[in-house]
Design a protein that fits this description.
Layout: H1 5-25, H2 30-44, E1 49-55, H3 56-63, E2 74-76, H4 82-86, E3 90-92, E4 112-120, E5 123-132, H5 140-238, H6 245-272, E6 280-282, H7 284-301, E7 304-310, E8 317-319, H8 321-339, E9 343-352, E10 355-362, H9 369-372, H10 392-402, E11 406-412, E12 416-423
Helix pairs in contact: 1-2, 2-5, 5-6, 7-8, 8-10
Length: 430
Amino acid sequence: MKPENSQLNQQVYQALIKINNFMGFLPNNLEANLALLIKELEKLLAPCHADFCLRQGNFAALFGEIPFSEDRYTLCQSDGCWIEDHALPIIVQDLSAEEGCQHHSVPPGVQSYAGIPIMEENKVIGVLSLHHRQKDFFTHEILEVLLVMANLAAIAIRQWRLVTRLEREKSELQEANREIRELAQNLAQSMDELKRTQKQLIQSEKLASTGRLAADIAHEINNPVGIIVSSVECMLLDGESSLSEEFRNDAQVILNQTERISKITRSLLSFARLPVEEKSYVNLNQIIEETVELFSKHLLKRRISVHQDLSKDLPSIVGNNNQVQQILVNLINNASDAMGQGGNLYLRTKFQDRKLIIEIEDEGCGLAPEQLDKIFDPFYTTKGKGIGTGLGLPISYSLVEEHGGEIDVVSKEGEGTCFTVVFPADKLVK
């Protein structure tokens, strides 16, 4: 029995409100939206069976994918469908007297059916089918309901396509932005690495050139210095009883200063020809503790407190104990001179990112930015006249480089300085 028009209109109105609210709540769930349309249509026109038959070829060509399972919605692949070919509805009021679409399958017991095309960009992408056991079921009002439901299905599909495209473009844009950020980060890291490498190359070449010159100068200076020392000592011995006290004092000054010259030339030779010594396993924590012990009285006299934060289970490196200790002696001595009378000296070791790191930080006078670029240059010193030779840090730089490591410095004038020595993974004991 057909429903009354007024009752049908009221039911259609309520169903449309429900569908509209639901589609607004789940705008990109196409399968749920189509399922709701089927459910409401079957409720309006009960007892009947409604279904969507989606044209797989057209749907995939337009949208590139099928957003739901084939178990729930038929994916029609037949060619020659009358509804698709003509893009018009087909209505069969009495299957015993009329012929429908030969590609339209009809369940047993059905007396009438209707197929309404679902259109997208002038193509039939699907068919809304309704089967009923009653003949002459499809009135004008019911056909209007079917057309409304087919249009709502087309709207749901268009909405799904738009949202899906926007989400895909958003995802692609986010991925592109991520790749751009990674490229920018990699470029920045490459530039920093290039600058560090360039700085190291310049410094290495500078040290090599200065080292060759220093060796020649040291040899040239040692000869006349040796002659001066021998001559003064002979004068003191020959005139032991006849020389005045003033003369002896002057002679002693000469000997002291020539000894100082000899010390400088020995440093030059040490800098020019770093000894190639046998390498073994080096325990950095142990060397730090031994070096601090050597400096203990000196640091105590200057009221400098030493704070050691040495990482446990620190791996050893392959190197030379004496050379590594020389690096630490130079850096601790510099820190002591920078602090003058009183302060804190921090010694830290850690194993991070397959690198062994030593930090030596003081609370001394610090360095100005223009000084930082020169501290590894031979003969450059920030200490007072006659106190430093300007070779301690260049020697340390060369020794660290010989061990395959890197040395860096961070300093702020008036606050202190922190030297960082890094030994890479290939120098660690496996």
